[in-house]
Design goal:
disordered N terminus, 20% helix, five-stranded antiparallel β-sheet, 2 domains, Immunoglobulin-like
Length: 380
């Protein structure tokens, strides 16, 4: 009998697989040096940090259904020249085929894996490496920034299936930015409005759906990052300011001691997080994350903090213009059609996906799916 191991195939993808001689892996959850005052949260560009993330799928069978299995795993392939550099991915699998594919509109990259029908234990393991660091915008020092291309401006002003820019979204944006004259003023006003008028709903599954028109129409502005940051993006686009969601994963603790804003275990299977960016003339793509402010309000110990709590105030001040570099970026895509699938499009690609006999697994339940994601920092 031939063993499963005999069928394992290896592959590499993206620009190149990082090889870092002289470096060693450290657990991402190793406690970082934190500020003594819990109210300090001030990311600033500094040294680059290198990470490795290992994603493993053991695709579970579907009871009573026979048929081939296939999977789509997002890869950290987004590039932010001053804060995120993907260094490549490699994989091993017993699948018949495995290839990197790209979404044609946004360029979101995923590994598409297809197993032969009858494979008893479909498995794939992907190792990705990347470098990241903190980022922050100094709004007192605008610079000469090359403008967005016409195509990019159109793309990041356009509506998506879940982020319309007309109707209730446009009406809400118009009220928020009334009287504001510059894009910076408008972008900040939208940020402050989202922080003031939304809340993090602990009962929301995963990171939410990002259906912002339904969210606004409900009058109940609760959700998680894919809802609240998508709301920011939609309002900015409706106000005529290019904006985008960036979908990713927390991979390390916060260096500022914020338990709610970091990955606090080497296993990060449920640490997905969506952030947002807004394009501001003189500053370029600018970090924004009102959803994390609401996360600090709800979850930062002791929990259920007031908006004037020192920890909330510090995060709120920083998260218009800054991010902490303890997070990887997968992509900025919307309305993703999975190649080879007859199932529905995804609003966004931030979780591994798999289908068996044409039935899609629940990507929000890694224990039943089954998949695991583990993160380690590569240190000198």
């Amino acid at each position: 009998m031939t063993s499963r191991r005999d069928f394992l195939k290896a592959g590499v993808g993206l620009a190149a697989v990082a090889t870092l001689p002289g470096h060693a892996l450290a657990q991402a959850a190793t406690p970082a040096v934190v500020a003594s005052a819990g109210a300090v949260f001030a990311p600033k560009p500094g040294d680059w940090r290198n990470f490795q993330v290992v994603t493993r799928l053991d695709v579970a069978p579907v009871e009573g259904k026979a048929g081939p299995a296939q999977a789509w795993i997002p890869l950290p392939a987004f590039t932010g020249d001053d804060w995120f550099k993907p260094a490549g991915s490699s994989w091993t699998t017993n699948a018949a085929t495995a290839e990197i594919v790209k979404d044609p509109h946004y360029g979101a990259q995923m590994l598409h894996v297809v197993w032969k029908e009858g494979e008893a234990a479909p498995v794939v393991e992907i190792t990705s490496t990347f470098a990241t660091r903190d980022r922050a915008t100094d709004f007192s020092k605008p610079a000469t920034i090359a403008p967005l291309s016409a195509d990019d401006r159109a793309l990041f002003l356009a509506a998506t299936d879940l982020i319309p820019t007309d109707g209730i979204v446009k009406a809400t944006a118009d009220k928020i930015v009334a009287g504001k004259t510059t894009d910076v003023e408008k972008a900040r006003a939208i940020y402050e409005w989202v922080v003031d008028n939304t809340y993090r709903n602990a009962a929301t599954r995963g990171c939410g759906t990002g259906d912002i028109a339904a969210l606004l129409a409900s009058g109940n502005l609760g959700g998680k990052c894919a809802d609240l940051n998508a709301l920011y993006v939609g309002l900015a686009r409706a106000a005529g300011i290019p904006a985008r969601d960036v979908y990713g994963l927390r991979v390390a603790p916060s260096a500022f001691g914020y338990k709610s804003l970091g990955a606090n275990s080497p296993t990060v299977s449920k640490a997905q997080h969506c952030r947002a960016e807004v394009w501001l003339d003189g500053f370029g793509w600018t970090a924004v994350d009102p959803a994390d402010v609401r996360k600090v309000v709800l979850e930062e110990p002791p929990g259920k903090n007031a908006l004037d709590d020192a920890k909330v105030v510090a995060a709120r001040k920083a998260l218009f213009g800054a991010w902490e570099g303890n997070w990887l970026a997968y992509n900025d895509g919307h309305d993703i059609a999975l190649p080879g699938s007859s199932g529905p499009k995804l609003g966004f690609l931030m979780y591994p996906q798999a289908e068996v006999a044409g039935l899609r697994h629940d990507c929000l339940d890694p224990d039943l799916f089954t998949y695991s994601i583990k993160a380690s920092e590569i240190t000198a």
